[in-house]
Amino acid sequence: MIGKKKSVVCHLLTEEMVWLDEAHTAKLRDAEANCSVDKTDHFFKELESMRFGFFSDHVVYVDKLRPINSFSQKKMWQDAPRINLAILHVTNECNLDCSFCKTSFCPVCKRFEDQQPPLTADQWKQILEQLARFGPSSVLITGGEPTCYPFIDELLSYSVSLGMPTSVHTNGLIPLNYSSPKLGVHITVSSPKNLDIILKNYNKIKSRVTLLVDDPLFEFVKAKTKGRWKMMRITYKEPFIKKEGLPKPNMDRFYARKLFDPCLNGKIAISYTGDVYPCLGSSEPLLNLNHKSLPQAVKMLIEEYWKQTVDSRENQLKCKECEFKYSCNACRFLNTDKNCGYNLEASSWI
Question: Domains along the chain?
Fold first, then answer.
């Protein structure tokens, strides 16, 4: 991966990375262009010992590892788009006023500032029917607080009946009336005092529950629940990109970053008013389902978000010129000028 000054070589099988300065980057580019190399050169000997390449006395043709099979690209048809995750924000009402609600970087629930006419239960059912045609891997029903929505049981039941893997996200303070072995329940634990209420309301569910817990509360909740349910660490803060936090560059991660946006690919979020977003962390809706169709929304998401790689992010020039771009998982909505510890001009990490 060539950056503005330096480069990174990734071994996609061993998940190792080697960071090269300008001089060694030039050497490796010459070698890749079939120029002769000196076997006694310490740099090449070191790469060989790490299994990043080998020496040969004659020209050897090694085809590049290609993310796309060029022989399968000429088709008379297009592959049908598939939704990985549909987030349905069914209500803006909530029984809590959490301090992090308006500032959470990657919210699983959200309260919108504007108060527009909400979608009806019948409109939500039509949306669920249309979503089912895209074969979603997961449907997450959230809010606001979905248990405050008067038709929540009806929508959950309908989504499950359509054969879609369905989950509901709640703060756990109001018990659900609807129950199904096919329904997942995600509960955000926002404070210690709420945990006793959550345990009381959902004590009959032995599985299918995942607690979403911020770091400061994690150990307390873990001790209190005694392994009863699955737990997931979450944070409301904007992430900060550090060298030691970079994911290891395996085959799947590397080519996912080259071919599409791994975070947003296949994701759609629909607000209680019918506005469509790439995710709840974005601020500008693409369109409204009162005026446009779900297939139109999916088409826009494919063109503007799902298939937009790090190389096509016009608003993130730093990412486009960074040699770590295919191993970094920075969200396209993150301000990398402020929240990344890599100095592109100096080629150094904080």
Answer: 90-209+259-306 (3.20.20.70)
